[in-house]
Amino acid sequence: MTATSAPAVLDRDGPLVAALVAWGRTVIGPTVGDGPIVPAKPASADALPHGWGVEPDAGRYRPVRREDQAAFAHSADPQSWKNSPHPEREWLWNSDRAPEKGGLSYTPHEPQAPSYAFLGVRPCDLRAITIQDRLLTGSTARSHCRQWLTQKLSTWHDQFGTYGCVGYGRRTAWSPAGIDVTKEVAALHAEHTAPGTETP
What is the pLDDT at residue 9? Predict the structure, then answer.
């Protein structure tokens, strides 16, 4: 015997979105405008795609009206939900002319991280967000940084059997974060050769 529950009803005029915003959440949900249904910041529950579905086909994606008023009955969105917690563009720093210093001055931009409330996100997208968070934080991020850096530096040797320039000199000079690849490599080497570290 399979247990079932009554469908939940999201009131179009209800206070859910306003309540979440009042609690300090950045609300992200599917919205429909002049184009496809995409994750955005709905002004209210009424902005969700009530009564909308989609007709996807090869090279085509078209929103269509449904006979019911379901808010989350459309198929997968053409845009990823990961764009919200991990945007493709992010404000990292400001620069100003500093004649007295003979160049530019940089100031890091450190906004407070938002607390999201996702409405209508599918389990597969939620799982992808969880995995990406794990990859970009903690020791996992350090491991991926090590892998990327060593792969970059070994490119010449792996392909041509010799060492050559990988273009990091100018990056060190112009990096607003002040990343010095030679120091990073030295740190990785020290970590690799520390007492008690097994050599593969």
Answer: 64
Q: Is the Cβ–Cβ distance between 80 and 125 less than 8 Å?
A: yes
Q: Average pLDDT of each block of 10 consecutive residues along the chain (200 residues)?
A: 60 84 92 83 89 81 86 78 79 78 77 87 84 71 71 78 68 59 79 67
Report how far residue 85's alpha carbon sits from residue 74's, in angstroms, rounded to the nearest whole number. Answer: 22
Q: In what order do the strands lie in the sheet with 25-31?
A: 38-40, 25-31, 115-118
3-state secondary structure 99-168: HHHCEEEEEECCCCCCEEEECCCCHHHHHHHHHHHHHHCHHHHHHHHHHHHHHHHCHHHHHHCCCCCCCH
One-letter amino acid at 175 equals S
Written as six digits, the tokens of 12 are 């179009």
Question: How far is it, in rounded angstroms, from Cα 69 to Cα 50?
Answer: 5
d(CA 39, CA 65): 18
